[in-house]
Amino acid sequence: MTDELHMPLVTELTETSGVVGDEGPIRSIIERELADHVDQIQVDAMGNLVATINPGADAAVVIGAHMDEIGFMVRHIDDDGFLTLDALGGWDASTLRAQRVRVHTASGTMPGVIGAVPPHTKSDDDAKAPKLTDLRVDMGLDADRVEDTVAVGDLVSLEQRTVVLGEYLTGKALDDRICVYALLAVAAAIEDPAVTVHLAFTVQEEVGLRGAEALGVDIDPMVALALDTTVANDIPGIDSGQAVTRLGAGVALKLKDGSVVTSPAVRRQLQTIADAEEIALQYEVLPRGGTDTARFQRTHGATPVGALSVPTRYLHTATEVASPADVRALIDLVVAFVTAAAPDDNYGL
Fold this sequence. Notes:
This protein is α+β, with helices and mostly antiparallel strands. The protein has two domains: 2-69 and 172-340, 3-Layer(aba) Sandwich (Aminopeptidase), CATH 3.40.630.10; 71-158, CATH 2.40.30.40. The chain is 25% helix and 27% strand. It has helices at residues 7-15, 24-34, 124-127, 143-149, 174-189, 210-213, 264-277, 293-296, 324-340, and strands at residues 40-43, 49-53, 60-66, 71-77, 83-88, 100-105, 108-114, 137-138, 155-158, 163-165, 168-171, 196-202, 223-231, 251-256, 281-285, 305-313, 320-322. Strand 14 (251-256), helix 7 and strand 15 form a beta-alpha-beta unit. The chain starts with 6 loop residues before the first helix and ends in a 9-residue tail after the last helix.
């Protein structure tokens, strides 16, 4: 199934570091890939990138995905040269012990590992679920060399490969690089749209949807769609009613999450197109969490919004898992939605 995706680009997007606040390496890839497919590219002071196709039409649509990935900032360097971390985004600290990391310093990127007490000497306290503040990064260097190289405020990302896992793929930062990939594929597939199409690649979504909220490129769309990952708890030990979505069952049409209730007219249009094009679709009701959809909804006061999600297992860990078939369904639905858009469309209540 992975032949449905261009895996070299997926791998580059997911393995490249782009922690909250340092999305530049990802933005560079996006600019390179968009060069032959859009009419203009704008980058605002925060680092959001908006690429536009067919500027100047009578109406516009916005499709968005966020560039940033969850990571860490160096909070403290102790006397032995071990690093304490502060979270940039939501982590389950119990998944982080013994993970390899990259420490991004002024002089370059350096390897490290988050330490773990071996079972031979583990105490009852060690066996408890850790807090992030309990963890330390070991850089394999003496304290003086660490002090000379690393500074408080340096960013830290996970070191992880993206690989094929049976019919799926796994790696870090599928949230939301798999949707960045999808949006690049959409840009390449769109031909002569009747409306202006803005492709918004946002920053700092993982720390409060900040990039989309502060978007510094002037856009006033008639409708906006946000693309992101969502929970797929279709795994042992989880009741089926708590799964939210399932891998391989199609792109997820978001009905609500903790930040937004999507617009009924937009949902109906997406459902109608999916039915007509025979695109696999499932529904997402997410009790907690949020996406850039909520910020796009408030563009110029109020904007009709929809959201499409890629079901993903083990979100916000180093081993996120997604189905290429679901990604393909996302691309096909967005392309069909944009192709069908016309300036006189009405997405009101």
